[in-house]
Amino acid sequence: ENIFDRSRMAPKTPIKNEPVDLSKQKGCTPERNPITPVKLVDRPQPDPWTPTANLKMLVSAASPDMRDREKKKELFRPIENSEQSDTPESLQYDMVDDSTVDEFEKQRPSRKQKSLGLLCQKFLARYPSYPLSTEKTTISLDEVASILGVERRRIYDIVNVLESLHLVSRVAKNQYCWHGRHNLSQTLKTLQEAGELQYGELMTFFQHKEQDLEYKFGERKKETIPDSQDRSLLDFSEPDCTSASANSRKDKSLRIMSQKFVMLFLVSKTKIVTLDIAAKILIEETQDTVDHSKFKTKVRRLYDIANVLTSLGLIKKVHVTEERGRKPAFKWIGPVEFPGKTDELRGHSPTSDPLPGTQRGPCAPYQICAAGKQRFTRHASFNGAQPCEGTRRKVSSEPNSPREERQDEYCSKMINLAAVCRQKIEEDTRNPSITSPLSLLPVPGDSDFCVNPLPQAVFPVVQADVPSLSLPNGISSQALHPSTPAASKTENGKPTLLPNQPFLCFPSSSLFMLCGGLQENNLRETLPTAGDVGNRRAEAQAAVPSAACQKRGSHKCASLSAPVDDEEPAAKKQTMEQSAVPLSLAVPKKPFESPKAESTPGSGCTSAEHLEAFHLDLASPAAPEAADSEPTKPLDSQEQEKWSQNKDPGEPSPGREHISKENANQPFLPQYLYVQPTAGLSSFNFLFSANQAPGAISLAASQLPSLSIPCVMVPSAALASFPLVCSPTITSPLSPVPDGSFSAATSMNFSMSGLASTTPVFIGTTAVVTPKVSPTPSVDPQQPAHPTLHLSPVLARSCGAVKLDSPVCMGHPVTLLKLQQPSSTPLTPKSIRPARHEAFFKTPGSLGDPVAWKKNEGNQTRNVSSVQRRLEISSTSPD
DNA sequence: CGATCCCGCCACATT
DNA sequence: AATGTGGCGGGATCG
After folding, report:
1. Which residues contact A25 (CB under 8 A, 6 or more apart)?
2. Which spans of this chain does the record mark as coiled coil (predicted)?
3. Is there a contact between A333 and A316 (Cβ–Cβ < 8 Å)?
4. Distance between CA A208 and CA A189 in Å, rounded?
5. Which partner from A92, A347, A465, A661 sits 20 to 30 angstroms from A336, CA to CA?
6. CA–CA gap between residue A682 and residue A679 (Å, rounded)
7. For A248 and B12, how far is CA from C1' in angstroms?
8. How far lies A149's CA from each of A10, A70, A98, A307, A510, in Å?
9. Which domains are seen in chain A, by residue range?
10. Is the CB of A153 under 7 A from strand C?
11. A70-87 pLDDT, tens digit each
């Protein structure tokens, strides 16, 4: 496109020409581009960066003109358009600013020329990415609008998104302060954490939600949901409690939406988020409804946001190929890891961020975030120091922090997710053709590997021995039924449970696997410094994300050193509760308010607790068996084969390029496996957090089974109502530690297998998968057991991406290719075999649970679930 | 024809 | 009430 523009535009119509350059950048290299200010450069006058003064000067000068121009613009436009290429006239106006530009500036602005993305680039070009702390640059909306020749409205669109990332902050009426990217990493980190929490928990929550749904379904969801969430999450800016609330609800949209959108990326293992999914997730209220119109509007907004993010070089557009076809999606190409805040402000140090969660301290329902933040910092404004001084103060009038709301929010979110899932499911069921995976993180088309349909058979589902686990069942019965009875039926099988196994598997058609957690959790933990230990802890925590949260909240980092211990007890307790747990699920709501669970003080956490319990239950059962169950199914050999092909080949693969890359990436990121519902499985969704396993496992094994559970399988029916969720968080922690380094993910499993719960097993699989993938190109990182890997799959991924960056990460090529050839793509494994399975197991060996393996073996006979397959594959590498 | 998303009306918030 | 903000979605343009 850009190219086009150039050819055309450049020559003729200069107006945009400046932009033109930009456009190029943008188009061509979104990743990096943005920062550098291309645009103005030419201009004689100002420099974009330094020139505050100049700029101002210019602006002031220009603005009037510009303004006129805008006004006139209408007039012009027509003209321009008509003339398009030729009209020099327009130049005049433009000229003002860009003398250089030329004459033709205006000519016809094609739509692209006027695109928000381009506009954003121009906007960004005006300011230094990393302004000196001292100078704060203030941005006058009018001025900028006039300079850029657009209506103010458009500037708002840009600024709102930038504000959500803290690149700017509103100082006053028409004034914004430019902060640049100094805090970006921090912000992202915060968002990631928040995202994990929120979404992660949500995921976990889902159970509760289900319950809630029952009640709320009808009513509440909507009510509560709305704003509060936003704030909590978003408010980043106002550290204080004040929260933006003041801001009025309105802020909800773009800003919040933007943050949420970013969170999805950060939480996503694949780093790819499809628009529709994002839209659905972001539509809080109506879960099910999802009016079309609303959805449509949401998507529109997402495009706006995506344009800005693209200009920032944080995401790029890609297409995900799913069963149905390609879907527009965006891939995160920004930083994935946020080690300390990388950049941070110049001045400030630490800072905390503003994330959303913080405020809620009290309730902190989710929020772990809060906890994390605490650590980092003070509540104060995160940026506090920002260059701009007062800038950030926001309007906040009063904060309302509705904690409760948050909970509600969660609920609402959960609901949404559930709704989304449900819808999809329904759709799928109804329209087989349609079936789309709900998965949040669908596998990117690119990565072929991503999606795989699992044969139902695959999971024989096993429930954990813990009958109690039932949660699903129970829950399902309760909550689910109402909403999704039909699906439920599948459950009929109630899923077969396997004793021991922690999981529930329902035979349903499609499976989705989502991996939520990011390592991020770890990050939070990081505080603790205890590096390793911390990690472990994290892991443990991770295992029980929510729980962890709570815990954290309660005691912060428990003992890093002996985190486990703490946890254990907790775990036990939990377990105790667990018994109830299943029920608890039903109970859920309370959790919110009442932390009854022993520990958690924070009501907010409660949910987590539940989860934990839940997990525990699952876990407790028997790991080993679980393993069997899960792995066992060697479903379709075919699939396996496919996998194998894909994977294995991955390295070898011809597609290597793209495919391999992705695979590689994925492996790293084992976070989620998304399985599309293919034919059979359409009904089910699975979420796995790749990460989880490791840490969780260990813990779990020892005592907290719950933790271990990485995956939850829910019957489609249940899903219908809710999406499955696994707390991703869990995984993450582990990863770091990991020993297993070679693959955190893998490790997870293994360890898990050994001990812990079966669940882990699953997880492991996922993890495994990734590894396997890794083989490919970039992959290496993992295998080697690089620490990085451990840290977080995600990170790893990111790393990979980074490293690979261009190639892999970018993967454009790859992506494209894949897209094109989805079918051909590797996804399908073919040749996988039991042998591998074995191997896989072996890998885990490190973990050492023979048992699990054995089981596997036994299972092998069965079909292996796709998951397993993956595992297998991955596993191969490990050894 | 579906994907994008510009444009600007208009409601709500702030001054 | 004026002006700032920004939700929202029609409908144009792109691919």
Report:
1. A33, A34, A36, A38, A121
2. none
3. yes
4. 27
5. A347
6. 6
7. 10
8. 18, 6, 12, 18, 50
9. 116-212+249-332 (1.10.10.10)
10. yes
11. 333 333 333 333 333 333
